[in-house]
Amino acid sequence: MARKQGIMSEQLKVEIAKELGFYDVVEQEGWGGIKARDAGNMVKRAIEMAERGVSEGKGSS
Q1: For residues 39 and 31, what is the distance between their CA atoms, to the nearest angstrom?
Q2: Which of left, alpha, beta for 60 (phi over 0: left; psi -120 to 50: alpha)?
Q3: Nearest 5°: phi and psi at 30?
Q4: How confident is the model at residue 40 (pLDDT cuts 50, 70, 90)?
Q5: CA 25, CA 60: separation in Å to the nearest integer?
């Protein structure tokens, strides 16, 4: 069974991984090499960024 395409863009994932300090693991092992905690922190950070964007009016048309 094929995996669904992720919601987060590759660019956003890279940006967040660099910000959180584990991009070196991604470079060496790929996204499958990161810890579950790091993946959870990525999702949390992406949600925070989205919420901030919506509250600043970036999410409205």
Answers
A1: 9
A2: beta
A3: 85, 180
A4: very high
A5: 36
Torsion angle of the four alpha carbons 9, 11, 14, 19, in this order, in degrees rounded to the nearest 10? -110
C-alpha span between 35 and 22 (Å, rounded):
9
Residue with tokens 């905690």: 37
pTM: 0.77
Q: Is the pLDDT of residue 45 over 80?
A: yes
The DSSP secondary-structure symbol of 8 reads S
- DSSP E strand stretches across 4-61: none
Number of residues that make up the chain? 61
E strand or H helix that includes residue 11: helix 10-20
